[in-house]
Amino acid sequence: MKAWWFSNLIIAIIFGFMTVFLMVRRVDGAGAIQTPGAKLAALIVLGVVFLFVVLIQLMVLFGIQRRKPKRP
């Protein structure tokens, strides 16, 4: 269970850095200037990926909770 929490912490830190990176950059990899609309679109894509990862993590947590023996 501790490994699950640690992996969630690492994932949250990575997504935090990615959010800051998307908001700070002025030009993307293709050379397009980042407008507020382009930044919003990038954040929406990042948010969808984040939700997908959260759903997978919740399924893993459910599996961990179900497998754990119940103590009397």
Order of helices and strands: HH
How many β-strand runs? 0
Work out the helicity level. over 70%
Let me know the average pLDDT.
89
> Strand count, sense and closure of the main sheet?
none
Radius of gyration: 17 Å
Task: Note the topology.
Blueprint: H1 2-24, H2 36-67
Structural account:
Pfam families: DUF3923. InterPro entries: DUF3923 (IPR025037). The two termini are 20 Å apart. The protein is 76% helix and 0% strand. It has 72 residues and is mainly alpha-helical. The radius of gyration is 17 Å and the shape is elongated.
Name the features:
mainly alpha; 76% helix; transmembrane helix; membrane; transmembrane; DUF3923; 72 residues
Please provide a brief summary of the model.
This protein has 72 residues and is an all-alpha fold. It has helices spanning 2-24, 36-67.
